[in-house]
Amino acid sequence: MKAIISFIAVLILAAIAYVGVDVLNMQYIFGVVIPYLAVAIFVIFMIVRILKWGSSPNPFRIPTTCGQQKSLPWIKYSKLENPSGVLGVLGRMALEVLFFRSLFRNLKTQLRDDSQLTYGEAKWLWAAGLAFHWSFLIILVRHLRFFTQQVPAAVQLVEMLDSFLQIGVPLLYMTDAVLLGAITYLFLRRIAIPQMRYLSLMNDYFPLFLIFGIALSGVLMRYFLKTDIVSVKMLTMSLVGFSPSIPQNPISVIFYIHLFLICTLFAYFPFSKLVHMAGVFMSPTRVLANTSRVKRHINPWNYPVHVHTYAEYEDDFRDKMKNAGLPVEKE
Amino acid sequence: MAKLPKPEELSKIDYTPPKTSWMDTPVVFKEGMFCHGSKPKSLDIVGFPNPRDWRPADADWKLPENWKEILLEGIAERLEKYRSFRLFMDICVRCGACADKCHFFIGTGDPKNMPVLRAELIRSVYRKEFTLAGKIFGKMAGARELTLDVLKEWWYYFFQCTECRRCSVFCPYGIDQAEITIIGRELLNLLGLNIEWIAGPVSNCYMKGNHLGLEPHTIVGNLEYMLDDIETVTGKRIKPTFNRKGAEILFVTPSGDLFADPGTYTCMGYLMLFEELGLDYTWSTYASEGGNFGFFTSNEMGKRLNSKIYAEAKRLGVKWILGGECGHMWRVLSQYMDTWNGPADFLEVPKSPITGTVFENAKSMKMVHVAEFTADLIKNNKLKLDPKRNDHLNVTWHDSCNVARGMGMLEEPRYVLKNVVNNFVEMPEDTIREKTFCCGSGTGLNASEDMDLRMKGGFPRANAVKFVHEHYGVNMLANVCAIDRATLKPLMDYWVPGVNVCGLHELVANALVMTGEKERTTDLRGEPLPGIEQKEEKA
Amino acid sequence: MIHGNMNLNHYLIEKKSAILKKWFDAVVETYPHETSTFLRKQKAQFTNPVGYTLSEGIEHLFDALLQGMIPDTVSRFLDSIIRIRAIQEFSPSEAVSFIFQLKKVVRQELGKEILGQQGIAEELAVFESAVDDLALFSFDLFMKCREKIYELKANEAKNMTFRLLQQARLIVDNQD
């Protein structure tokens, strides 16, 4: 049910773009106004969100230690799993962000009694997650060609590598296929595994469908419903240069659908779970080094508390202490 | 006559949950799965809110009129105070990686024991009250109203989490359910919704210095019993000191070690080791608790109880502090103490008087774990050990959650262990070190009335022990945690009869050859040492 | 399809994997839906001990039945299953009902044709009576497990009071 509503919501979004552009001829709204608005929402509210996180302190140093601590010099400690300084934390975060280290832990193979290696669903979660995020990033990088007059060499290199299979005309980008495949998997596991279905919310299905819609409209545009690329670039460059104008040659409506879904994603982003993109860099159990015994960590809101002092304790028990031969402060 | 159900009906009984979503499935309190509510006296002593007689299974929890307001304000306050809380409310993507990592989920099969869902219990209310999307879209955005049912659900499930952090190890964003449970319990504490098994020890510890409520003369008395036993085994009379000013080292251990077997054997181990070293140390009856049940009620209470350790070190004028074997004690000490009650600038950087080793890793907090201390002794050849005395034992090692995932002390105890026993076997890889399974009774859930819960939660741990018991004949489960020593014993009794539980320093003391001791014929438990019976027969 | 003069055991061995699968499903169905798929991932001995113990347990029980109830095997594996079910909020009848399911599963799997063969009915009666024995035995085990739980509870209380009594002269309660 939650999945169906999310699916319909994305369909409606696509329909809005279609009607708006194809029927109502609101190219300027959909090509200029909404994109600016969406990017503005994204930038402003992401900053707000991050500042909000940042405004709450880390009162305590609470890394999850996943390896040997640094203690006695002759005991080998785990620099990456239990970092004792900035370098270790950087390494730990790099592994986490680039390779999903913690998720990887999930699929640690298990040796059964009969010595057969068995892998669980965990492997696929890690692989699909990684495939999804990396192909999304590469696709994003490829799109830079629309926002730069001279396409940077790095972007061209990425494009070349991405299409090295040399299939089809125009050349198939592997990441397009990988992204669609990965996202399909991530969706299916939510539906197929009962415990996943039980805990999934609309908030989980909607972004999946939305990104699927974005990828699908992009693929349609590139491979099937031809679009005037030159005009598209004119439009995007005019947006980047803050002198927006809709090109003379009409751009097909599939482009506007693609663009509108992207705008939705941008505007939705800061209010959704997708903020994990920024949040992962601030997670106290990962970004704090395990140094609380070496260096005092300050809690900015630390305040004095009521304690039961030794003097009060001795007052309570003085006679008993004396009888037991324990030293006392006051006779 | 009542209609008899058929077997297949029986097995499909309404144990299957309603098809409603988890948000609309109110909690059912099941016998054996929760602890008694706190007594008014226990709350009163430390000034906790809403002291009253109440029972968790009752419909009326005798809450203050404005309980909802109190909770929402409490959440708002903690969002400002803890980045962890704020972040963990926002960034979970519900990938499910944590779902089957929780020992309570594995053991109970209750979907709300999946860490992600346990967090959603509070997250759903956060969305409703603190996010725009939740306010506008309500349930569609995963938001729900805070009702009495929701509150009861919080209570039931936040006391079915031992803050063991295993889920956090597997989370791609490091979301730590322990952190959420800690804050969840703090919120419940605002309404006086504590459990007596925590509240009682807290008030004891506040007034008397330790969870068990042992008064100064009782502590001395208890140690006397142990000294008698040590004399029986070794022929040596040890005379430890208490509250002695000018000692070099203050020794603090969980009070469980003073009270019940098998913790007492561990305690005897400390006594014998320190005696053999001629350590200039003292016990304290005021700071007679290393553990901290206050930490399971609120940050503030944790700090209040913890304050005694530094205060006593200062009063006695010691140079540094040595800490005994305990789990959550060391999470609190290593990640909280210095921040709460430091700086301990009146102490010196801990330096072993025996080996001269300076414990740079405790430079600021000035407290050393006894396993670190002993590992250093053995590495420097300062102990005469006869591991053959432990040959009747086939030992495996249980990493305690807090020591493993809130500190990272994995190798030190293993190094000690390998030097004091000849037979040591590791449990399967997925169940040790940072992936260790909880005993199922931590964070104050080691009461008797929730025995079913404890047996379920401890099953993954017991199952791994059973494996090494059956395959390698393991008969001793060693660890460095007082709660483990108390709770793994019944856990083994139920799941793996034939496996006993001990602390690390019990094994150390068994192997320790003391100067001037008589020839030992038994271990600390009074069991004959291996080879002794045969010898007698020959003679 | 004509089978020679095969006896019941042969059929049961032939259809072992199908029977075990169905039997396992019947056991797992006694758990909530969200949990049951997790339990079905039987291979993870240490990360899914409940599922593993159930699936391994019923296989050995089935083998034991075929080989005429080897007491050691039966008590070991029946114990491991019942021990789990005894703490999982099942009533006694619920906890042991899965044993009876085996009869139904076997009849389904054998089918009318085989059941109609000469001599099979008698053999089946013997087999089913063995299953009944298993069920009776599991009642005993269930009760033992529950008693154990109460014993553990009582022991903890006893340990506490023992110490308190021992130190009665030393300990006083917190002042009201």
What are the main properties of this structure?
heterotrimer, A: about 325 residues, mainly alpha, Fumarate Reductase Cytochrome B subunit, about 60% helix, elongated, B: about 550 residues, 2 domains, four-stranded parallel β-sheet, 8 strands, about 5% strand, globular
Describe it.
- The complex is a heterotrimer of chains A (331), B (539) and C (176).
- Chain A is an all-alpha fold and 331 residues long.
- Chain A is built from 14 helices and 2 strands; from the N terminus they run ααααββαααααααααα.
- In chain A, strands 1-2 form a two-stranded antiparallel sheet.
- Chain A is elongated.
- By secondary structure, chain B is mainly alpha-helical.
- Chain B folds into 2 domains: 20-194, no CATH class; 200-511, no CATH class.
- Chain B contains 24 helices and 8 strands.
- In chain B, the strands form 2 sheets. In chain B, strands 2-1-3-4 form a 4-stranded parallel beta sheet. In chain B, strands 6-5-7-8 form a 4-stranded parallel beta sheet, sandwiched between helices.
- Chain B is globular, with a radius of gyration of 24 Å.
- Chain C has one domain (8-144).
- Chain C has helices spanning 8-14, 16-28, 33-40, 49-66, 71-85, 92-115, 120-166.
- Mean pLDDT of chain C is 81; it is low at 169-176.
- Chains in contact: A-B, A-C, B-C.
- At the B-C interface, α1, α5, α11, α12 and α20 of B face α3, α4, α6 and α7 of C.
